[in-house]
Amino acid sequence: MTPTDIVTSGLQILSNWLLYILALLGLTVAAIVCLVVVEVVFERGAIARAYTVKPDAFDPDSSASKPSAEN
Fold first, then answer.
1. Three-state secondary structure string covering the chain
2. pLDDT grade, residue 44 (50/70/90)?
3. To 5 degrees, how large is the angle CA 25–CA 29–CA 34?
């Protein structure tokens, strides 16, 4: 083996290791982004539920608005 072959082999090992690390980093970032997106979607749903009126709140046929038989 010539010295250039040894250097080339070492550089290939180094590049494979760097690609492996970058792939793990990319997967980690993608997972974090997905978790953030899911959290934002659920948070928007909670905010929307907090600031919306329930559909039966002002329904004249609901049991809360009917006069009771006791009166």
1. CCHHHHHHHHHHHHHHHHHHHHHHHHHHHHHHHHHHHHHHHHHHHHHHHHCCCCCCCCCCCCCCCCCCCCC
2. confident
3. 150
